[in-house]
């Protein structure tokens, strides 16, 4: 990703767009920040917000007619914020006005003709920027009428004019605003601005100026057409500000037009969801204006408009305390680091790649592509932390290994129209259900049904391992071709997605559609209580698959409820993108949050969703639990199998099928499996948390005994075995029982290698 | 390369089962991702079998692994 690409991506996140009030204000006052401070009772800080933006704030805050009010999103739920009344309250109640710090003199002078709001505002801005400014007016007494200040207390007007003088502005009272004066001042000064309230451009006989810059055909002269009657005071002040900016640019020799697109009021791209906002009417303004309490109450009605549509619904985006625009920048910086610590690795590897944020985003910010591309880039450059996805990739290799993988035609057949492809996680979670399903498919599907047990490659895809993923898809394709290219019947929605996208030449059909079409199982069992359907995130864009599941539910006589985010807006369970590998605590949070949204017993059709929700404490069933129950009693939610059990389940499924269906010998189990090993409950829990498999422990005990890598502690029956089979060193704390078996109490591991001891 | 002392516990009641030797503090070289450290760890004076206690593996060592992975 280069800088230009980064900017393109960043621009799609609208969280930093200004709120509608600020965009609509001719002077771009941040009413959102103003209200936030006021609501908190911070009157002086709120006043500082006005002073930062308004010219002559003491005057303008009192006469502002709040053109922002019509744009305020609150107007759609109760009524726009009464900014005018709030500004007046603030102007009268603030105790401290921030001091003015004009820039050092630039040695340039500007003359202003007239004394309306445009003139005063232009003078204010120019003087603050270090210009010597002279205002030419007929008489100072004209100021109140010219600047709509009739209702403004005289002392306030005097005080603000005094501040202008403090900034170095001088008033000359002898001038009739006329073309002759303009010519004289142009000859004597660097730039002249004619306040259109005193002398509009048309009266000067000068062609109408470009409205963006107010520059005229006379170099150094800035003027404007006569403002329409009823023009907002804020808009008049903005006219003066525009002239001041043009004069400043002219003096600097800078472009008068560049980057001024958003100077006038504009429509912000900011999106704010108000579907859950209750209407609330404005706080009435008493004749004396708001007091502390009523002002705070009115300010509190401000919705503090922001988007955060994605962050609100994603524990991952929330966790890193930013939003997609900031993440894009962090990911870009992360890739750019040559020396030093890369700060965004965990951010990049924690995205579930589920695409909910993109679905919710009004601009479809490409978070998934951003993270996946970053992972691929890190892998390619050898910068991917080895620990991030190694466990999942090892698991994938195991699922594709000879102890788990199967590619066989239906016994007794030579060609098959179908092949059942349950994926690798369903056999790990519910091997019996897979066996029963396959039996049913063999009986009901015309033309024979082969079996293909292996992984679809999703872990390699998610981890950014493009080489490994390509190899995995090639191996899958080879198996499928060897079986005679039958229609792949998928049970796992992730597999369905992977096959559709990466093996497009294959015909696929979901198990649910096939069951609906060719025959339901003979004795499904339905639980009595209410069920809540959780759509896996990999079905987000598979309307057909989600519909097939609902049709099947109807055929079972159940109408499950659905959580608030369902269908195309469904949430990930925490498995997607290998989140659990890169950031286990966050995965647990994600699963818990999703579980909380499901009423009653959860029902889903992805083995990982079911297991992760079950792990989060949610009673949860897989659709196959209902379709192919162990017996004819209603299924009860089972606990999630642990990491070791999952592997064991796959191995046993293969062994059983080879035994009973194909009558083929299974490969001998590895010799470390001959050890008799028991685990204390504490050890089991620790191993699960630390992702240490029982096979890792068995291998360690076996090797340590063989190599003599055992340590003993005086006075304790417990001993310590160590072994480094590949990239991880394992330590197993055990004791031997009377029968020669092992009792394991504890286990830990590290990746650092002990490479030498000095004697 | 100086030797870092990362353990304060006493490991003199540990023995290497194969050699029957008491573990003694030894400078040990640890490697990870092109980085190398010399750390004092309890080791068998005869065969060099090193003890990496749980607290070290899951504490400081895990922290350094993580830092090196993000380098």
Automatic annotation (TrEMBL), chain A:
Keywords from the UniProt entry: 4Fe-4S, Iron, Iron-sulfur, Metal-binding, Oxidoreductase
Pfam families: CCG, Fer4_17, Fer4_20
Keyword Ribonucleoprotein: no
Domain annotation Dihydroprymidine dehydrogenase: ranges: 11-96
GO cellular component annotations of the record: plasma membrane
Taxonomic superkingdom: Bacteria
Domain (Cysteine-rich): residue spans on this chain: 418-500, 533-605
Record-linked PROSITE patterns: 4FE4S_FER_1 (PS00198)
Entry's Gene Ontology molecular function annotations: 4 iron, 4 sulfur cluster binding; metal ion binding; oxidoreductase activity
PANTHER family assigned to the protein according to its UniProt record, in alphabetical order: IRON-SULFUR-BINDING OXIDOREDUCTASE FADF-RELATED, IRON-SULFUR-BINDING OXIDOREDUCTASE FADF-RELATED-RELATED
Protein name: Fe-S oxidoreductase
UniProtKB/TrEMBL annotation, chain B:
DUF7479 domain span: 13-71
Entries under Pfam families matching the protein: DUF7479
NCBIfam families in UniProt: DVU_1557_fam
Protein name per its UniProtKB record: Putative RNA-binding Zn-ribbon protein involved in translation (DUF1610 family)
């Amino acid at each position: 990703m280069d800088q230009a690409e980064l900017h393109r991506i960043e621009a799609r996140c609208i969280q930093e767009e200004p709120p509608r009030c600020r965009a609509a204000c001719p002077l771009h006052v941040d009413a959102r920040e103003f209200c936030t401070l006021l609501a908190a009772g911070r009157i002086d800080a709120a006043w500082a917000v006005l002073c930062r933006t308004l010219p002559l704030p003491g005057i303008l805050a009192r006469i502002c007619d709040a053109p922002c009010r019509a744009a305020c999103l609150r107007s759609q739920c109760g009524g726009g914020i009464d900014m005018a009344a709030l500004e007046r309250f603030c102007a009268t109640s603030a105790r401290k006005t921030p001091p003015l710090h004009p820039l050092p003199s630039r040695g340039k002078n500007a003359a202003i003709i007239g004394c309306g709001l445009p003139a005063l505002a232009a003078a204010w801005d120019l003087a603050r920027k270090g210009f010597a400014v002279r205002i030419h007016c007929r008489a100072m007494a004209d100021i109140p009428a010219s600047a709509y200040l009739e209702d403004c207390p005289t002392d306030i007007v005097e005080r603000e004019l005094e501040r202008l003088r403090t900034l170095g502005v001088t008033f000359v009272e002898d001038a009739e605003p006329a073309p002759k004066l303009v010519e004289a001042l142009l000859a004597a000064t660097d730039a002249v601005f004619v306040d259109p309230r005193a002398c509009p451009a048309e009266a000067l006989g000068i062609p109408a100026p470009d409205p963006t810059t107010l520059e005229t055909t006379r170099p150094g002269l800035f003027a404007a057409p006569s403002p329409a009657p009823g023009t907002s005071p804020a808009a008049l002040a903005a006219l003066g500000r525009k002239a001041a900016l043009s004069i400043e640019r002219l003096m600097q020799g800078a472009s008068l037009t560049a980057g001024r697109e958003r100077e006038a009021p504009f429509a912000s791209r900011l999106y704010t969801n108000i579907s859950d906002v209750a209407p609330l009417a404005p706080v009435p303004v008493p004749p004396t204006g708001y007091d502390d309490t009523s002002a705070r109450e009115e300010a509190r009605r401000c919705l503090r408009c922001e988007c955060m549509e994605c962050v609100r619904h994603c524990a991952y985006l929330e966790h890193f305390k930013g939003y997609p625009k900031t993440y894009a920048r962090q990911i870009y910086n992360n890739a750019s680091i040559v020396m030093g610590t890369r700060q965004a690795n965990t951010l990049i590897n924690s995205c579930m790649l589920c695409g909910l944020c993109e679905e919710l985003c009004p601009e479809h910010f490409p978070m998934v592509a951003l993270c996946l591309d970053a992972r691929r880039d890190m892998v390619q450059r050898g910068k991917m932390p080895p620990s991030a996805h190694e466990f999942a990739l090892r698991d994938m290799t195991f699922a594709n290994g000879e102890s788990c993988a199967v590619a066989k035609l239906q016994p007794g057949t030579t060609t098959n129209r179908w092949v059942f492809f349950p994926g690798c996680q369903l056999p790990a979670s519910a091997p019996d259900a897979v066996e029963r399903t396959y039996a049913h498919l063999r009986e009901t599907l015309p033309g024979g049904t082969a079996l293909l047990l292996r992984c679809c490659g999703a872990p390699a895809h998610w981890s950014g391992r493009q080489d490994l993923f390509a190899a995995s898809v090639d191996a899958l394709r080879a198996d499928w071709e060897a079986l005679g290219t039958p229609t792949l019947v998928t049970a796992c929605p992730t597999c369905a997605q992977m096959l559709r996208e990466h093996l497009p030449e294959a015909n696929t059909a979901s198990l649910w559609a096939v069951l609906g079409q060719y025959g339901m199982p003979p004795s499904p069992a339905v639980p009595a209580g209410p069920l809540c359907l959780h759509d896996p995130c990999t079905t987000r864009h598979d309307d057909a698959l989600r519909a097939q599941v609902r049709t099947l539910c109807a055929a079972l006589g159940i109408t499950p409820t659905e959580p608030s985010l369902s269908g195309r807006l469904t949430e990930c369970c925490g498995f997607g993108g290998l989140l659990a590998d890169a950031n286990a605590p966050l995965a647990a949070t994600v699963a818990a949050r999703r579980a909380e949204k499901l009423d009653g017993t959860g029902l889903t059709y992805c083995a990982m969703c079911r297991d992760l929700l079950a792990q989060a404490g949610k009673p949860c069933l897989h659709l196959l639990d209902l379709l192919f129950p162990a017996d004819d009693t209603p299924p009860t939610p089972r606990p999630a199998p642990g990491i070791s059990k999952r592997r064991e389940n796959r191995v046993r499924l293969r062994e059983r099928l080879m035994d009973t269906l194909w009558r083929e010998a299974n490969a001998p189990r590895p010799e470390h499996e001959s050890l008799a090993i028991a685990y204390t409950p504490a050890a089991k829990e620790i191993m699960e948390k630390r992702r240490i498999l029982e096979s890792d422990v068995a291998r360690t005990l076996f090797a340590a005994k063989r190599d003599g890598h055992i340590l003993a502690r005086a006075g304790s029956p417990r001993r310590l075995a160590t072994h480094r089979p590949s990239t991880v060193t394992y330590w197993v704390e055990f004791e031997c029982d009377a029968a020669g078996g092992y009792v394991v109490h504890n286990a830990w591991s590290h990746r650092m290698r002990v490479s030498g001891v000095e004697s | 390369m100086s030797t870092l002392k990362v353990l304060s516990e006493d490991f003199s009641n540990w023995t290497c089962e194969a050699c029957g030797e008491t573990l003694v503090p030894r400078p040990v070289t640890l490697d990870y991702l092109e980085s190398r450290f010399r750390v004092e760890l309890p080791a068998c004076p005869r065969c060099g079998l090193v003890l990496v206690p749980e607290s070290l593996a899951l504490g400081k060592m895990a922290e350094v692994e993580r830092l090196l992975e993000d380098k």
